[in-house]
Amino acid sequence: MIITADPGSDKYGAFAAAPKNSEVDCKAWIEGAFKEIGGKGGGKKLNATRMVEGWGSINKALEEAKK
After folding, report:
1. How far is CA 15 from CA 21, 31, 55, 65, in A?
2. Number of domains in the chain
3. What is the largest CA-CA distance in the chain?
């Protein structure tokens, strides 16, 4: 998962991708990391995205993504 911030808009986004034969479920990973944070996004098993307004939750997103 990659998490990147836009300093000009007070938003950050996350992107997760996995190889075709991977057992990683990117949609579930993103949804789990942002369950309590919210934001908007979507995806499928092999790739998913999320955008969140306000940087206040970025550290929580990083910690949740590691689980």
Report:
1. 18, 11, 16, 11
2. 1
3. 37
Which of helix, strand or coil describes residue 55? Answer: helix
Asked if pLDDT for residue 67 goes beyond 90, the answer is no
pTM of structure: 0.86
> Distance from CA of residue 31 to its chain's centroid?
7
Under 8 Å between Cβ of 12 and 5: yes
Domain holding 31, by residue range, is 2-65
The pLDDT tens digits for 5-49 are 988 898 999 999 999 999 999 999 999 999 999 999 999 999 999
Distance, C-alpha 49 to centroid of its chain: 6
Q: Which is nearest to 53 in space by CA: 14, 16, 13, 2?
A: 13
